[in-house]
């Protein structure tokens, strides 16, 4: 088991290299430059700027230098925010985004799995239909509609929670709900489907036959089947939660990494764009690995090799 | 399955063997889809929306003489009334026309982007799987790498590189959105290519290109259609996501995402500018998701949940 985890970790290295190369090519071969959007710059100033960021060297040299810096954990300087390094911007913004995504994940798992269990255990009853209809509505309401509506009702009408900003726990709730609801809906459908898949299988019949209480059958045996599709969904879900937080951060004025990325892409802030893309890619690769390992732990039929 | 038997008196057309009328996969699926009342209602709703979005704006322009860009600053933002059922926005533009033409943009982008994604994904998956071996390994590794990249960020980079035109938005969405289709098709072709009809085609000397396009791809059409119908709403969502960030359709043209963005900024005073575009977007996604579910159940009864 540990050996196979180590091997998978090693396999990540070439993938990351390819990602670095691909994103470098994509960002650098794009027309425009970090300094083209601002007003006329005198050529000598421009030369100095290019020299400061190393843009005067040929691209392959720049790429190798970037790789070298990357190996030391240095993501370079931002051109849009000249006073700050990419590392500083990420260190300030990423924990915020991560917190937001974590709250959304917990919310979506809690609500989604609960609704899924209700749907599966009470299949084809009013409860089931209500849960699944709610899930379909949840899937269909985009975060950028749900977010402003929540602000309108919860913050501005009822004055329960702050409409925007970041600070204490009260600021996390609305953005977390906004970001997590669509995934809660998908998780509910997956849980229900997974549980119904196993509900007629032999091991459930055995469990019932040996006299286990219905509660134990549900919690210990059926739920495990129900969670398998959810676990394999978590990788893509976490990925799209992290990127989806761009919109939620904009709605609630949360100082996460998202607004920086859109800004950076617009302004051709090469190092900031690459830094954020690489951070996300690395994070996603590791999350997918964790998800795969969890999956093989949950389902002994899958060989971990 | 009971088939309608022909009465002996009925003249048998052609040979005696066509006494038993087989139902094709498609006829079967069609029958199942029609029996799914929610799916039928959803497709009716989508058709209604599509017709309204196509016919509405020119009809309103011909009757009342304004389109989605006609401003009336003196009139300003007015709540819903008989003349303007959805109200008017900050510039006195009729919101109904703007929502309808925005809906047209959303539907067009959604379908075209899903079409681009389905085409790339199908060809890529089929070729990769049919070629097998090293080619397959390399091609699928590329898919894995793309999978690890934060999807929305990639689209944002592409849009900022390519420029903010509508045509490029759906190309960018489609260019990144084909991964799922590629995986699904690859899995299908994997099992198809072992079958006798492919061997027969090969032994007749059919070139590989013809085997892929004439024999393999048509047989993967079922899962491709299922993926396609479920991709449309997610593409619509992503176009709105981009427009919400200011990266999609540019003012003064309208798209649902841009309208929702405007509405979210003014919802405190002019609630209708958020509620109407938001509801239309949600209804559109709801119907498309429902239809997608219905198509999946109809084409692949095993996946029925």
How would you summarize what this structure contains?
The complex is a heterodimer of chains A (305) and B (305). Chain A is mostly helical.
Order of helices and strands of chain A: HHHHHHHHHHH
Question: How many β-strand runs of chain A?
Answer: 0
Structural category of chain A: mainly alpha
Strand content of chain B: under 5%
The proportion of residues forming helix of chain B, as a percent range, comes to: 55-70%
- Ranges of chain A where pLDDT stays below 50 over 5 or more residues in a row are none
pLDDT averaged over residues of chain A: 81
Largest sheet of chain A: none
CATH fold type of the domain at 94-266 in chain A: MetI-like fold
Biggest sheet overview of chain B:
none
User: Any idea what the radius of gyration of chain B is?
Assistant: 24 Å
**What class, by secondary structure content of chain B?**
mainly alpha
Radius of gyration of chain A: 24 Å
What is the beta-strand fraction of chain A? Answer: under 5%
Can you count the helices of chain A? 11
CATH superfamily heading of the domain at 94-266 in chain A: MetI-like
Distance between the termini of chain B: 21 Å
How helix-rich are the residues of chain A, as a percent range? over 70%
């Amino acid at each position: 088991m540990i050996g196979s985890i180590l091997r998978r970790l090693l396999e990540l290295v070439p993938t990351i290299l390819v990602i670095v190369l691909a994103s470098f090519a994509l960002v650098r071969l794009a027309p425009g430059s970090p300094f083209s959007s601002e007003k006329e710059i005198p050529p000598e100033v421009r030369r100095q700027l290019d020299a400061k960021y190393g843009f005067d060297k040929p691209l392959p040299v720049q790429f190798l230098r970037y790789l070298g810096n990357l190996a030391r954990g240095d993501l370079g300087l931002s051109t849009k925010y000249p006073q700050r390094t990419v590392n500083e911007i990420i260190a300030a913004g990423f924990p915020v985004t991560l917190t937001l995504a974590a709250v959304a994940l917990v919310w979506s798992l809690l609500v989604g799995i609960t609704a899924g269990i209700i749907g599966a255990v009470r299949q084809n009853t009013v409860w089931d239909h209500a849960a699944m209809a709610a899930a379909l509505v949840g899937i269909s309401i985009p975060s950028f509609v749900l977010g402003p509506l929540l602000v309108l009702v919860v913050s501005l009408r009822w004055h329960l929670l702050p409409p925007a900003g970041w600070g204490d726990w009260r600021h996390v709730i609305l953005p977390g709900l906004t970001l997590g609801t669509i995934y809660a809906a998908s998780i509910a459908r997956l849980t229900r489907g997974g549980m119904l898949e196993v509900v007629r299988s032999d091991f459930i019949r055995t469990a019932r036959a040996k006299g286990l209480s219905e509660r134990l059958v549900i919690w210990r045996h059926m739920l495990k089947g129900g969670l398998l599709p959810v676990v394999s969904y978590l990788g893509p879900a976490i990925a799209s939660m992290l990127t989806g937080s761009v919109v939620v951060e904009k709605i609630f004025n949360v100082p996460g990494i998202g607004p920086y990325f859109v800004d950076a892409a617009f302004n051709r802030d090469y190092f900031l764009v690459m830094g954020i893309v690489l951070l996300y890619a690395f994070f996603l690769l590791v999350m997918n690995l964790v998800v795969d390992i969890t999956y093989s732990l949950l389902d002994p039929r899958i060989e971990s090799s | 399955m009971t088939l309608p038997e022909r009465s002996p008196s009925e003249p048998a057309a052609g040979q005696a063997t066509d006494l038993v009328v087989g139902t094709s996969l498609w006829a079967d699926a069609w029958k199942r889809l029609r029996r799914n009342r929610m799916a039928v209602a959803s497709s009716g709703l989508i058709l209604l929306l599509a017709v309204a979005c196509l016919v509405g704006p020119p009809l309103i322009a011909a009757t009342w003489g304004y389109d989605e860009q006609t401003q009336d600053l003196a009139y300003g933002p007015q709540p819903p009334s008989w003349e303007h059922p959805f109200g008017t926005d900050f510039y006195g533009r009729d919101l109904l026309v703007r929502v309808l033409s925005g809906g047209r943009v959303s539907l067009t982008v959604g379908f075209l982007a899903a079409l681009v994604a389905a085409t790339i994904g199908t060809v890529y998956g089929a070729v990769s799987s049919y070629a097998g071996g090293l080619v397959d390994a390399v091609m699928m590794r590329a898919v894995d790498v793309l999978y690890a990249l934060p999807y929305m960020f990639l689209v944002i980079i592409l849009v900022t590189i390519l420029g903010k035109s509508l045509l490029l938005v759906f190309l960018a969405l489609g260019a990144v959105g084909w991964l799922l289709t590629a995986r699904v098709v690859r899995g299908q072709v994997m099992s198809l290519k072992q079958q006798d009809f492919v061997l027969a085609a090969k032994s007749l000397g059919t070139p590989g290109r013809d085997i892929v396009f004439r024999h393999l791809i048509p047989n993967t059409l079922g899962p491709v259609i299922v993926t396609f119908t479920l991709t449309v709403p997610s593409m619509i969502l992503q176009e709105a996501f981009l427009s919400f960030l200011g990266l999609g359709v540019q003012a003064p043209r309208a798209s649902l995402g841009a309208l929702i963005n405007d509405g979210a900024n003014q919802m405190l005073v002019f609630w209708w500018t958020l509620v109407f575009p938001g509801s239309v977007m949600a209804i559109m996604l709801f119907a498309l998701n429902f239809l997608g579910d219905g198509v999946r159940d109809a084409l692949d009864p095993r996946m029925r949940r």
